[in-house]
């Protein structure tokens, strides 16, 4: 048995990191595919030998994952970590005698319906917010749904992304299939054409509408059946269709609130209660005309639960990915296997920095240990335990309906540690030991470490606070700036999501921060603050201090830590 000294291990780690940076292309790591690729096979023979020694005796393995861009991290959080989307939709939560899921799917379809394949215009672009006065878009469900999403847009997550995500999250929450999600939609700034189909239109109009949206006749039949698996028709809004009182004022399409094939089987068996198929008013029986338009061939072909789910998943995916020409969607947002949280560095109370960050894993493992490491300002890794820390907290998260369906159980490892202000920090990384004898994984952004670019101008999440008064809730954003004084110019440009359904477009405002007398200067830092409405949590920062300019974009202030 060879015992490697700490210094030898560190030398190999550093050597490996340099070699990796130079020789390896970034490895795309596909989450959910089990263990990360074995890095040994990709190293030079010389390094592979050194590395295999290390793997044998120190059981260290490099997980070569590149940190995704901010948008992918934010979309990952919305899709897989519990949040406002998952709590609104719950397990097929009921609303207004239908379900939140049904309202969200209808919203997504109506928004997408403005697409025209002939010139590439329109599509899922949130233009629906400017189209609510049209009779096709009648219903409280539409405004309620827009309100569900409107105040949660972010600089990298648009309202149209949230509408698209709502449709697939809602579908899964009611027992429907998983549908891959891509982000990157761009919000419209005005209304699109009035092309949402209406029940009183004839079959030829409907077939042409769906063709313009990009769907064949058979796809039209399936897409309508998939959509009308959820929810129903509200008597209050459509008294010509639902002519007699019904339970809760909503006539369900297939008698169930779940996403299932009952809409098809009931239709084929002649037992369907669908008000758009067997309603007393033949003119508005659009589902009957559509479903029977090919002699029921398509309806028969999607009658089994498996085929129904598969066909609906494909069509819903196409529906949410129907966007105006020129809009570039992201890759599919897979759950990130080793997800590094935001990193916060700010002056603590005791003359040291507080450094707060986290690592998220997709599965629970009580045997697992996770350790945080960092290099000092000069980039040298200091000897253990000088630059390492164990988690200050470990907890699980119930996730979203999609997380549950994917069989994931999220585990968070939170770190809240002190860092010497003189030696400071330039980068950090993690080591994860599953405790089962497998190699320790080093999560280090492809060998480079996760950078802390500077420690001169910092969002101080230990000193930010919230305040409420008659006019609302506010966030006091605090910036710690080194070698700054009242003559320094520190500005933030905040991001304000749409404030109402009639004012849906996000706005930005630039504010000057002033020295905050509540926080006396310490360790060379002066504290500046500004009060912003609570929802303005995202901001860009610019600081001009003694001739030097610091700029950073897309910082999330959020709550005090
Ligand atoms: C010719 C095509 C279509 C017509 C004429 C039509 C018509 C209607 C009508 C009149 C309602 C009742 C709305 C209410 O009372 O709030 C409704 C509900 C609904 N539609 Fe459609 N629809 C069509 C296609 C689609 C498609 C393609 C989808 C989705 C892929 C869809 C999804 C829904 C959903 C989920 C509801 C239930 C809403 C709720 O319960 O709140 N529809 N549709």
Descriptive account of the structure:
Helices cover 27% and strands 23% of the residues. It is built from 14 helices and 24 strands. The protein has helices at 6-23, 45-57, 70-80, 84-89, 100-112, 140-150, 159-173, 203-213, 217-227, 262-269, 286-291, 297-301, 305-320, 401-405, and strands at 60-63, 94-95, 98-99, 232-234, 250-252, 338-340, 344-347, 353-361, 369-375, 388-389, 393-397, 410-419, 427-433, 440-443, 450-451, 457-459, 465-469, 472-482, 489-496, 507-512, 514-515, 525-533, 538-545, 548-556. Strands 1, 9, 10, 13, 14 and 15 form a 6-stranded mixed sheet that branches. Strands 6, 7, 8, 11 and 12 form a 5-stranded antiparallel sheet that branches. Strands 16, 17, 18, 21 and 22 form a 5-stranded antiparallel sheet that branches. Helix 1 (6-23) crosses helix 2 (45-57), helix 5 packs across helix 7 (159-173) and helix 9 (217-227) crosses helix 13. The longest helix is centred in the N-terminal third of the chain and has 18 residues, at 6-23. 42% of the residues are buried. Bound molecules: protoporphyrin IX containing FE.
Outline the fold blueprint.
Layout lengths: L5 H18 L21 H13 L2 E4 L6 H11 L3 H6 L4 E2 L2 E2 H13 L27 H11 L8 H15 L29 H11 L3 H11 L4 E3 L15 E3 L9 H8 L16 H6 L5 H5 L3 H16 L17 E3 L3 E4 L5 E9 L7 E7 L12 E2 L3 E5 L3 H5 L4 E10 L7 E7 L6 E4 L6 E2 L5 E3 L5 E5 L2 E11 L6 E8 L10 E6 L1 E2 L9 E9 L4 E8 L2 E9 L5
Parallel strand pairs: 1-14
Antiparallel strand pairs: 2-3, 4-5, 6-8, 7-8, 8-12, 9-10, 9-13, 11-12, 13-14, 13-15, 16-18, 17-18, 18-22, 19-20, 19-23, 21-22, 23-24
Helix pairs in contact: 1-2, 5-6, 5-7, 9-13
The chain binds protoporphyrin IX containing FE (HEM).
